Amino acid sequence: xRACHPEGSxxxxxxxxxxxxxxxxxxREGTPTPKAKMLIPKKNRREVYKYxxxxxxxxxxxxxxxxxxxEIDVPNLHVLKLMQSFKSQGLVSERFAWRHYYWFLTDEGIxxxxxxxxxxxxxxxxxLKKSTRPLERGPVRPERPRREFGAxxxxxxEGYRAGAGGFGRGAPSADKAGAPGAYxxxxxxxxGGFGRGAAPPQ
Length: 202
Prior knowledge:
35% helix; 6 helices
């Protein structure tokens, strides 16, 4: 009845006109218009949540046109949008490198996903599990035979010292061994010498 009344029709037209002017001005001034929230199927949402809780981390390429995520059977865009929402709520921490996002579950995110997926407290992400594998050791080297040094060992230290022609502390002294008979050293006074012991030239 109000729409049929002339005054009601005028007010309704005025409201529509005002709304159209405000929308035109906001576009001209560059004011962003509110975007519609993306609707993600519950199945895809659950798949992403299950993977994130299991691994504790999640990565995705910065590509909204990628048909599927390489590790989860959902569009890559769904992963980006879900993790963007998680980041704004403090459920994940984010890093970016080489056109890839990396998200890490926070304590709040772990509790949120555990409640959403209805999981017991005994189940934790892989990043919180302690490794039970023993430390890997390198190949064992064979033991080398020990060299024995003693009076009875062949080629031992004493045998080396006792051998003829030895040098060093183990060699026999000159008093005990003596010099060869053909060795006759000559010192200054003899003709034809050179050095400090030689006779001065005439």
